[in-house]
Amino acid sequence: MNTLYPDIEQESPLWDAFPDAEAIAERALQIAFNKLSDQFRDGAELSILLSDDEHIRSVNQEWRGLDKPTNVLSFPAVEPHKIATAPFLGDIIIGYETVKREAMSEHKDFADHFTHLVIHGFLHLLGYDHIEDAHAEKMESLEIELLAELNIPNPYQDGSLTE
After folding, report:
1. Do the domain assignments include residue 142?
2. Mapping DSSP to helix (H, G, I), strand (E, B) and coil, where does residue 90 land?
3. Do residues 84 and 39 make contact, with C-beta atoms less than 8 angstroms apart?
4. CATH number at residue 127
């Protein structure tokens, strides 16, 4: 059986309010892995850091030049054409307050929104993006399909975006 090894770390105590975060992230990654395992090697690893707005804002400023918090940042470890053989896929950071704020303002369940962002971040590690419309449609379609397997409604049905 093929396996993906996520290393999930909680950096911010804010995540104590959501004690199921690690289990939910692992389940979302397993669903994505089952669907996409032909794109990367068995035993691939990745890391997820459960952070807060202060930290993710500083990382966003340093790496993207945007001095504001965001919901999720992904840092692929290799170029997309090297994913199939990479032992480490990359890092994902998720900011608690932004996720919570978006879930509330978009009338979404926090766990559902968090799950979506885990999948969204994971797809970025695999080289998916949403810069061009055609790529965005492909990525969003895959997100919707993976979330449906977790009984989570289409996060784009009301036109809201995750970034």
Report:
1. yes
2. strand
3. yes
4. 3.40.390.30
Residue 65 lies in a domain: yes
pLDDT digits (tens), the chain, 163 positions: 578 899 999 999 999 999 999 999 999 999 999 999 888 888 999 999 999 999 999 999 999 999 999 999 999 999 989 999 999 999 999 999 999 999 999 999 999 999 999 999 999 999 999 888 888 899 999 999 999 999 999 998 865 554 4
Please list, residue by residue across 2-40, b when 16 or more beta carbons sit within 10 angstroms of its beta carbon and e when fewer do. eebebebebebebbeebeebbebbeebbebbbeebeebb
- What is the C-alpha separation between 161 and 47, in angstroms, rounded? 24
Do residues 97 and 54 lie in contact, with contact meaning Cβ atoms separated by under 8 Å?
no
Domain that holds residue 47: 4-149
Residue 86's nearest CA partner among 125, 120, 128 is 125
For residue 54, tell me if it sits in a domain: yes
pTM: 0.94
